[in-house]
Amino acid sequence: MVMDKTTMSVQELSAQIGISLPKAYALVKQPDFPTIKIGTRILIRTKIKIIWNCIGEFQTPTSHQ
After folding, report:
1. Which residue has the higher pLDDT, 61 or 10?
2. What's the distance, CA 64 to chain centroid?
3. DSSP class of residue 62?
């Protein structure tokens, strides 16, 4: 039985949606982007990535002030 991954790392998210790693980190640090934090590790549910991809929400903030 093969199980699909339910989470991905920020690096995997970056590669899958074709954005740079710094932009991927900026994306997951947005307050409305759901993540799972375990210690310093940030995980993204694969279903969340699919939903965000479908609605085109991949806009990273220009600055954090």
Report:
1. 10
2. 18
3. S
d(CA 42, CA 54): 22
Instruction: Give tens-digit pLDDT for 9-30.
Output: 999 999 988 889 999 999 999 9
Report residue 5 as tokens: 């991954």
DSSP string, 3-56: ---SEEEHHHHHHHHT--HHHHHHHHTSTTS--EEETTEEEEEHHHHHHHHHHT
Q: What's residue 38's pLDDT?
A: 94
CA–CA distance, 4 with 36 (Å, rounded to integer): 18
Q: What is the pLDDT of the chain when averaged over all its residues?
A: 79
Count how many Cα atoms sit within 13 Å of the Cα of residue 36 in the half-sphere of its side chain: 12
Helix, strand, or coil here: 57?
Answer: coil
